[in-house]
Amino acid sequence: MSEGLRIAHGGRIDRSRPLAFTFDRARYRGFAGDTLASALLANGVYLMGRSFKYHRPRGVLAAGAEEPNALVGVHRDAARYTPNVRATQLELYEGLEAESQNRWPSLAFDLGAINDLIAPFIPAGFYYKTFMWPRGAWQSLYEPRIRAAAGLGTAPREADPDRYAARYAHCDVLVVGAGPAGLAAAAAAASAGARVMLCDEQSEFGGALLSQDPRTAARIEGRPALEWLTHTLAALAANPRVTLLRRATAFGYFPHNLVSVNERLTDHLASVPADSPRERQWQVRAREVVLATGAIERPLVFPGNDRPGIMLAGAARTFLNRYGVRPGTRAVLVTATDDAYTVALELQQAGIFVATIADLRGEDGAAAARAREESIPVLTRATVLGTSGRRRVRSIQLAQLEGGEPLTTQLQPCDLVLMSAGYTPSVHLYSQSRGKLRWDEGLQAFLPGTPAERVRSVGACRGEFALEAALADGAAAGSAAAREATDPARRGVCPAGAA
Amino acid sequence: MLLIECPWCGERPEPEFVYGGQAHVARPRVPAEASAEEWTRYLYLRENSRGVHAERWRHTHGCGRFFNALRDTTSDQFLATYKVGEAPPSPGQVSR
Amino acid sequence: MQRFSGLSLLRRGLAGQRGWQPQWRHPDPKPAYDALIVGGGGHGLGTAYYLASEHRLTNIAVLEKGWIGSGNTGRNTTIIRSNYLFPESAALYDHAVRLWESLSQVLNYNVMFSQRGVLMLAHTVHDMQVAKRHVHANRAAGVDNEWLTPPEARAFCPLLNIGDIRYPVLGAALQRRGGTARHDAVAWGYARAADALGVDIIENCEVTGIRRNAQGAVEGVETTRGTIRAPRIGVAAAGNTSVVLKMAQVELPLESYPLQALVSEPVKPVFPCVVMSNTIHAYISQSDKGELVIGAGTDAYTSYTQRGGPHITSHALEAICELFPMFRRMRMLRCWGGIVDVTPDRSPIIGKTGVPGLYVNCGWGTGGFKATPGSAHVFAWTIARDEPHPLNAPFTLERFRDGNLIDEAAAAAVAH
What we know:
The complex is a heterotrimer.
Chain A: E1 14-23, E2 26-32, H1 36-42, E3 49-50, E4 57-58, E5 71-77, E6 80-86, E7 96-100, H2 114-117, H3 137-149, E8 164-176, H4 180-191, E9 196-199, E10 219-220, E11 223-224, H5 225-238, E12 242-245, E13 248-254, E14 258-264, E15 279-291, E16 295-297, E17 310-312, H6 313-321, E18 330-335, H7 339-349, E19 353-359, H8 366-373, E20 378-379, E21 382-388, E22 395-402, E23 405-413, E24 416-420, E25 423-425, H9 428-432, E26 437-440, E27 445-448, E28 455-457, H10 467-485
Parallel strand pairs in A: 1-7, 8-9, 8-15, 9-12, 15-28, 17-24, 18-19, 18-24, 19-20
Antiparallel strand pairs in A: 1-2, 3-4, 5-6, 5-7, 10-11, 13-14, 14-15, 16-25, 21-22, 22-23, 26-27
Chain B: E1 3-6, E2 10-13, E3 18-22, H1 36-43, E4 52-58, E5 66-72, E6 77-82
Antiparallel strand pairs in B: 1-2, 3-4, 4-5, 5-6
Chain C: H1 6-14, E1 35-38, H2 42-55, E2 60-63, E3 79-80, H3 87-107, E4 118-122, H4 125-140, E5 146-148, H5 150-156, E6 171-175, E7 179-180, H6 183-196, E8 200-202, E9 207-212, E10 218-223, E11 226-229, E12 233-235, H7 241-246, E13 255-264, E14 274-277, E15 282-286, E16 292-298, H8 310-323, E17 332-342, E18 349-352, E19 358-362, H9 372-385, H10 399-402, H11 409-412
Parallel strand pairs in C: 1-2, 1-12, 2-8, 4-14, 12-19
Antiparallel strand pairs in C: 3-7, 4-6, 5-6, 9-10, 10-11, 13-16, 13-17, 14-15, 15-16, 18-19
């Protein structure tokens, strides 16, 4: 059961407000502030979905919008069924009914997994190489079966009774993303007197600050990070020239600084209010845009890297510090960066046994020394030969490389494998604006290059990962954007010298 | 949707306008005397520039007037808008 | 060419996926060829295939500025039909449909051609008159098309809303032999088959100039990968035709507009056919992967940016939600645009250009994908014989001067 998986204190959940929900018709309890994913993990549920084609058992990989596996269908009533919702974005409410997808007859026992057994014969693109004989058979025989096997969720069958609203807005500076860089940008633009809109796809502003351990988190402007967060948000909320949009995803960047934002108004509520639209789509024409869209952690590629219980190190940290959930009891970390060492120590502090840190690199630096002080074994020049465990990871086979060849191997029992391989800046919106990307050899990532619209990228989304650098970056861009937006000589939204 | 600067009304969004195609396409003064080639050119042949394009817009849900624009069709950024009868600014002259 | 079949999958599967051969080579361009095709989309690659397979011209190359199929071939909504109004058009598009029906077998590559039926909705008295006119014209020309009442249309597509909406469905024209295919597969299938016959496929090779000799005939191209000589050049570079033809001082009656499309999240099978509505500017089908594939009308202004405004796609989605109210809750996963070359009569230009040795295949506007095999077939004929095939003979560049327009604005069924 789950007694040992919920941490007694801390996190941003409200333990005074327990909530009842069902997943695949089984009843569970969680707390206000949980997502479906964090609540399921707290209840010891690791199996949350099946892969698209081979129906391999899948659990959560991430903790936010980038989650690829835990897609569920949400049932409010016969006409309000929503497929393909990420469990990591689904805010828990009293009476939530969710079900897994793409499996029959059940998630635990899925006949579709036969595809996994015959996987060698149905590799990627196999359907281009067969199904051609006899001639009419593609349409009458093969295609219907392919179509039945494809698709993830089920489309709703009845007309949608919900209403959807639309609104146009104009502002001087639109800031997308309310992590530290975005908040700094919005605050700077607001204090320069600009009309500011700040949107974030999450239910709470704060971004990466919400995933830190408050006891060890860095201080901002001389105070604890979360205190800075509360103070900054209060100032922004009190400013009549600032519009704050939570649960609002900026999903499209159109010509001439038109950004489409989708604001979710009722999906997190236990019952649908009669007088509210379900969502509101904003078409925002901004004189200047600041993108603070963050970065997504990279998974590692090794055989068997997709079992339930194998997740990103940052996600484990978020489940721990933000949702008060231990995502496992016995962890192995596989890393190519120093970030994993911080996570390892936090896991250990929270009562999770950290069996090993397998570092792909050769060095044995200060981070490794610190880990060893806490009795966490560190294996350098490591690689992963495979994992085992069908519905949940059970062990990982590590090896140490000598001259590029795996020399010594060790089999580590575990129920949690965390991967840490750096971050990829989120340049989706920037790319939509038709800005050019440039390859950064040091970061091994694409970063925003020459923009095509009046847009600035700040913080992690342009490779500034350190907190202080991100804050400074955001503040500088916010001030500059406000200045240019309100310049009386300024005309239109096209960048100067566009020819 | 584009934001277009009407020379009379200022910046207005694209749905207020109707696109008028390539600008400065002169109709033959005496159509009956135009050759088949001249008439074909007037009716159908177009620059279709990949780059700076001189075009017309009409502010139908505004002042109702036609005007001209220079727009870069590889970025959709406007370099200039100018009234009918005015000479198109050269791209080098334009600064915003 | 390594033969594809269920048996080959079995063999390679047992061998751990070892032994698959590359589907086409990546040779460096030779200094000269007997013919060049500019544009590595479905039309260009198909032309190269038919030149090699039917006209024994194998010392040829396809030059593609990006990667093959990266232009409109990879961006369309995959609808195939031949229910155009005039007999010249119906003949050309139906030639394509008949080639589609055996294309997978001919190329030994499953292009996933599915004749699930194309339903064209009528919402006004004018729509009904136009649709019925098309039905009669098609049947007189030997192309299948039939008129359905609203209940019959709903029987064919059970999700269709034939109730009291702003633009009610007053009936529909159904072409049962119409349907969809997998767009990428068409490019790859033609590429593999052409390569097997000796055709060089040269990617990342942008044509920057066309060389003409003292007599004015073409003698080669300048490209980002060097100069390549050839006495015959066929241009099938939708979205950049005006740019390329200007290099040979040829002016065209083309305007290039953005055309947007979207796909939804993948869901289990729910939509059995293709539905198009000219009046409310939307068309929809469901791919074999489960995604709803939705297309819109063109944006209003010429552009080479391959994107448009959200008001265009919103309008198309509003129309879809009126016709299929159960889809309003579904979310769109990807949205993109292409560049469509539109002619004044919405019919293509396939043939000579007036410059000896230079041939053009362009102006397909919003409807080029459906014609891919037919267009490629007749274009290859034209290049090989220096004379149009009977099916593309009416689609000349001169028709705009001579007045013989083939006006398919209604049949194009996409607002622009």
